[in-house]
Protein: PucR C-terminal helix-turn-helix domain-containing protein
Amino acid sequence: MSDSPTPTAAQLGQIQTLVDSLASRLQRSVQVDTPAFYAFCSSPQYGEVDNARVFNVLHREPNPEPIPWLVDNGVQDSREPVRLPAHEELDLLPRLCVPLWDGERLCGHIWVIDSPELSDADLKVITSFREPIINHMVARDETFVRRVAEMREITRDVALGLDGSLAQAVDNNFLPRRGTIRVHQLTITEANNAHQEDAPERLMMELLRFRRRRPFLVTDNHDGLTIIERSESLDASQLLFDEFQAAAIAVGARIVSRGTSTMNELSGARNTARRASFMATVAALQGLESLTWEKAGAWRLLLGWELTRATVTALSPAASALLSEGSETLWRTVMEYLDNARNVTATAERLFIHRATLHYRLEKAREMMPANTLDDGWECTCLHAALRLHAALESTS
Structure:
C-alpha cells in the first residue's frame, strides 16, 4: 500500500496559519491544494477574485473545466513557479502556481492571483514558504492510511455480496441510503506513456483524500478501479465520473474504458461486479469510453468467455470456416446481413451494392460453411456473435 499522506487536523491548522501569513504579507488571496486541485487551505479574500476561487469556496472542490488547461500549462511537471495567463473563456485571472515537490512526489501547489503582476520580491516571499508548507504536508497520517485500508476491505466485501456488507457501508456513510446501486469497473493506464505503474492506486488515493458531496466505495486492482455508487439517476452517476476524469488528469492517469452494471435482486453483488468488469473489457475492445450491461446487447452472451480468436473458433465452426476460406469482403457481408436481421434490401443498401451482388456473395459464403447455416436461427446466433467478436479483434490488431 502507498504511503501517500494527507494532513492531520493539527497539520492543517499549521498550513492554514502559513497561508494566512503569506496572504497578509502579499495582500493577495493564497490557496494551497492537492495535486488534483482540491483545496487544503485558503486565505481570506484579498483583491480580485475569479471563477476558480468562487467555485472552490462554494462547492469545496475544484471546477473540473479548467483542469486540462492547467495541466497543459505544466503545473504538474514543473519544479519552478509557473505563471499562467488570464483565460477569459474560463473566467480565470492570471495566477502564479508554485508546485510543492517532496523529492520525486508532487504534494500540491501554492496559488496566488497574479493581478497586478507579482514582483521579484513577492516571488522570494512566496518561495520562502514552500519548504515549511511541504514539511507539514508530507507528515504521514495514520488515520488516512487506516481509512484507505477500510475502504478497500468494505468495497471488496460489497462486491463479493458478503452478508451485512452493504448495510455496513451505508451505516459508515460510504454509500447513501437511497438510490440505485451501480458497480463500475474502470480500466486505468498511465497518461502520456509514463514509466510509472501505479496509476490505479494513485487515482484511488486522490479520490479518497476528500469526502465528496456524494459518497462512494472504491478499491484498486491490477489494472483499474472497482467503484460502487448509489444515485438517483444516470445523470447523477455521470456527474460523479466527471469528477473522476478531472482527478485522473491531475494525477497523470488515463481512464481507458468503463463498464457498468446495475445491482438488483436478480443479479446480486458478485454477478454485478463480474458484469461490470466484462463490460469494461468489451468497451476497451471496441474503442468505447463506457458501456453498460443494460445496453450491451448480445455481447452479454459472451460473459465468461475470453475475448480472443480461439473463442471465435469455439463459438462457431461456421465462422471459423468462413474466416479461413473466404475473403474479408465475404465475412463482412455475412456480418452485415446478420446485423440487419437477414433483410436483403436493408443489407444491400448498407453495403451500397446491388441485391444480385449480395445474393452472389451470400451463396459463395454458404459454400464455405456447413449446410443451412444461414437458414438456422440458432446457428446464426453463434455465427453472428463470433463474427462480431472477430471484427472487434481485427479493429484492435
User: Anything to note?
Assistant: The first helix runs from residue 9 to 26. The two ends are 35 Å apart (CA to CA). Residues 250 and 259 are 22 Å apart (CA to CA).
